[in-house]
Amino acid sequence: MELTQAQLDRQDRVDNACHTILERLSGRELPWDIELSDIVRDAVKDVIVDRLGLMTEMEFFPSLTWGGDD
Fold it and tell me: pLDDT digits over 23-63, tens only?
């Protein structure tokens, strides 16, 4: 199974938005660091998916999970 182009585009939008949040809140241009974006993405997912229930985790950030029901 592979992600669709729309799902890959969604991943890019979310990752770019997370990077933009860091830049805007810090008031600086920052080098791309996916690990920092991952931290922001997890925090935002907790609010949008877990607390507000606005969408599923797959809708928020589509991914293939390996070996589990994550």
Answer: 999 999 999 999 999 999 999 999 999 999 999 999 999 99
Q: What is the span of the domain harbouring residue 43?
A: 5-60
pLDDT mean across residues, the chain: 93
5 φ, ψ (degrees, to nearest 5): -60, -40
Non-local (6+) Cβ contacts of 21 within 8 A are 40
Region for 67 from its dihedrals, namely left if φ exceeds 0, alpha if ψ lies in -120 to 50, beta otherwise? left
Cβ atoms 10, 62 nearer than 8 A: yes
Residue 9 domain flag: yes
Do the domain assignments include residue 15? Answer: yes
Single pTM value for the model: 0.86
